[in-house]
Amino acid sequence: MKKGRVTIKDIARELNIAPSTVSRALNDHPAIKKETKDAVKALAEALDYQPNLLALNLLQKKSNTIGVIVPEITGHFFSAIITGIQDVIVDSEYNIMICLSNESYEEELTIVKRLSKIQIDGVLVSPSSETKNFDHFRRLQKSGIPVVVFDRDCPGLEADKVLVDDYFGAFQAVEYLIGTGCKNIAHLGGPLNLSTTDHRLQGYLDALEKNNIEVNKEYIVHVPGFNHKDGIKPSKKILELKKRPDAIFAYNDNIAISAMHVAKKFGLKIPEDISIIGFDDEPHSNFITPSLSTVWQPVYSMGMLSARILLSHLNDKNTALKFRREVFKPELVIRASSR
Amino acid sequence: MKKGRVTIKDIARELNIAPSTVSRALNDHPAIKKETKDAVKALAEALDYQPNLLALNLLQKKSNTIGVIVPEITGHFFSAIITGIQDVIVDSEYNIMICLSNESYEEELTIVKRLSKIQIDGVLVSPSSETKNFDHFRRLQKSGIPVVVFDRDCPGLEADKVLVDDYFGAFQAVEYLIGTGCKNIAHLGGPLNLSTTDHRLQGYLDALEKNNIEVNKEYIVHVPGFNHKDGIKPSKKILELKKRPDAIFAYNDNIAISAMHVAKKFGLKIPEDISIIGFDDEPHSNFITPSLSTVWQPVYSMGMLSARILLSHLNDKNTALKFRREVFKPELVIRASSR
DNA sequence: TTGTACGCGTTATCAT
DNA sequence: ATGATAACGCGTACAA
Questions:
Q1: Which of A145, A158, A130, A161 is nearest to A326 (CA)?
Q2: What is the mean pLDDT of chain A?
Q3: Does the reported pTM lie above 0.90?
Q4: Which CATH number is associated with domain A8-51?
């Protein structure tokens, strides 16, 4: 009995042929007699031969792995995107390595270095909210690693991008609020330095302007993070204003739920006293009371498309010439938290 | 100018020394003159030398990667565990490969084969709800790959396990309901064939028995899945009973929220007409109305401990002799959805 | 149709 | 203190 796992050498010795012949037989090389091919395959099967991918990796100078860099996965948003990515990649030869930057530029840098060390073949990334400089991604590209950016844009970086029309989503939501008679609409904006924050804010502003509603700067408060707790203080700040708003458009559902929570504490009725609209359409948003109006994003599709684009680069090296920019349309979902 | 990345050979040639000397210098081998060591390191720095991990992998027959197999990540539970795992592993030499079984035994099998092919060094796993046979994990163990099971037990499998005392959590919750005067307590049980489902059900049953409350079989309904929608029909079924229960202990927060949703539709007041307690303490559970009483689990710690145990096996091969079994205590969190 | 020889980048062993 | 050589497992150009 041999120790260790069986290699092509073992098969070769057993069959009294050269290892290279075994290799060719296994790979269906045309110039191999059917006879020997069958013999090799039969023995490989019998011996439960497993090709050593580690050896292949070295030979081909690639790890057959793609890196996915996301800020976090405890929320539903990135988890769903990752699920979409996974469902595409799983049918390919590649493996996925998911890396969490924890919304930190430093950690993102460390991750990129790591991925580069293990000779990753491609990268899917949604940058941290701290990231303003994208040279680390450019370095990846320079060493021939295709980079696909999703959800959060990296302004100035030339790369494939799969985004959502946040502006459109926000505009729709705010116009809806205006259409239902709301006059004083506040915006709980996202953390600064994020493309999504900027675009949703701009959609909000433009919707007001288009409808000749003056912007009240006190009505715009940015939250420090993406979780429920991050929305509490900003919500209070807004609801304590002398001229209390009659509607809130929140950066995401978590924040919207915080706002609902605070509004209820203030004794306000939703949506009679105040309308609230979120963003993301998280699963539970439909089951809370009142059910939350929100802006749905095609998260799963975004994940799938991002992965497909990356795969296409990995398969045809010449595809890399042109960068694609795909922008999904979000959809307004009206439920009970808005008039 | 050289093409490709710089290797120790390049450094060796440049310095007119042997590649092996370069290797030793880089690895701080004791028997190397400080002079040459410095020269080598300086040049390596200057040339931005990066060791080729792919070559090392082949040499050491290990991928420096550990696999994490979970049923899904769209919920908060596994996402938080993974975050804990990640935060421990990131400080080690290892990389993480997260794999989603989608609650499917077949996919879990495929994943295990894949991981085994890429010569994974260790595995952290929470089995799918379909998985009844654990031979695929045993095969991993046989080939020397340590396996750590977390959250969902694999009965009969000898491996390290990091679990939660679901029985205790359920028992506490139900005793609390009894203590607040509830007489007719229903249980929305989890999907069948899961250790967590069994243990929570048993905790429920034993709490009733201890308090001399007869078990009403109509009060026990199992949900088909873990999401909100999976709880709707079972909730209706329970709330439509002639003898409507005055409390529901739900398998998890999602299901509990479904139950709240349905109860409200039935015109019931929570907690006046019916108390509801969930399990997991998801982030939003504190912000819905009424805020959800639930059973908190130390998810992040579970992830960290699981990862630490795996790392300890990876470092000392002899640690593998004894399997650890760590059971965390969950904690009852009373909020407004229960009397 | 098949075998030989080499290389991928690194480290370990054995010399020197 | 350092160099030469082999080895990890595989694929492939070249030779036969």
A1: A161
A2: 96
A3: yes
A4: 1.10.260.40
